[in-house]
Amino acid sequence: METIVKCIDVWKIYNPGLPSEFDALRGLNLSIKKGELVSIMGASGSGKSTLLNLIGGLDKPTKGKVIIDSHDLSKMDENEMAVLRRNKIGFVFQSFNLINSFTAMQNVELPMIFNGIEIEGRKEKARKILTEVGLEKKLENKSTKLSGGETQRVSIARALANDPQIILADEPTGNLDSKSGKHIMEILKKLNKDGRTIIVVTHDIKIAKQTKRIIRIADGKVVGK
Q1: CA–CA gap between residue 59 and residue 133 (Å, rounded)
Q2: What angle do CA 175, 192, 100 make, to 5 degrees?
Q3: pLDDT at position 106
Q4: Rounded distance, CA 47 to CA 122, Å?
Q5: How many CB atoms lie within 10 A of CB 73?
Q6: Centroid of chain to Cα 67
Q7: Do 13 and 21 meet the contact criterion of CB atoms below 8 Å apart?
Q8: Residue 26, φ and ψ in degrees, nearest 5
Q9: What is the CATH number of the domain that holds 22?
């Protein structure tokens, strides 16, 4: 299978040259194939969240290369990075990161507005995606009127708005009960079966074991895969 994510000797150094200098990633190497469902595990401070930020194009490495679908992020400017994030990557966060004053529909429509999709098209697509995640009766509900599991499903629907190849899920079940967490993982596994690459950061071994490969991070390096 074709490689869609590749990290080559990646270092991320915070506060370089200062007394507070910290190496979050230390020569990390990693490859993920297109269509894989993988989890990234590691203790607090191991570098897994930093790695996710680099893969998602939210930050750049201090040294080394992060290549996403043949694009070397170190050679891209901020505008190019924004386009990459918008078109190729969907983000699912532990804290949901929805706009509370928006309805489920409006939250899912938002990425499509930034992508220039006209109102009729984006409303139809938002309705379709929310139906696919089981929220066809909650389209006009604001997140304050949804359960944690339902809110995370809106977050997943929003991540799918621009048909990304890669879904990055940062502790997607961390704020949910076990039943809701199981439902979220079933949705992510279905998306993977449909051909998307899914990368899940988790501290929960029960969640990690539901993925096809576990990548273990310690002290800024991959120690098991």
Answers
A1: 30
A2: 35
A3: 96
A4: 36
A5: 19
A6: 16
A7: yes
A8: -130, 80
A9: 3.40.50.300
Structure tokens at 222: 């991959």
Look at the block and give the residue holding tokens 């004053």: 101
Domain that holds residue 80: 3-224
Residue 1's CB is within 10 A of a number of other CB atoms, namely 9
What's the total number of domains in the chain?
1
Check residue 14 and give its pLDDT: 93
CB 200 within 8 A of CB 181: no
Bridge partners of 168, per DSSP, are: 91, 199
H/E run at residue 9: strand 3-14
Q: Hey, what are 112's tokens?
A: 């499509």
Q: Please report, to the nearest 10 degrees, the dihedral formed by the alpha carbons of residues 167, 39, 92, 180 taken in order.
A: 120
Helix (H) / strand (E) element for 102: namely: none
Residue 115 and residue 83: Cα distance in Å, rounded? 9
Q: Which regions of the chain are under pLDDT 70? A: none
Span 71-120, pLDDT tens digits: 999 899 999 999 999 999 999 988 888 999 999 999 999 999 988 899 99
Coil, strand, or helix at residue 69? Answer: coil
Dihedral pair phi/psi, residue 168, rounded to 5°: -105, 115
DSSP state of 144: G
- Only one residue has tokens 């899920």, namely 169
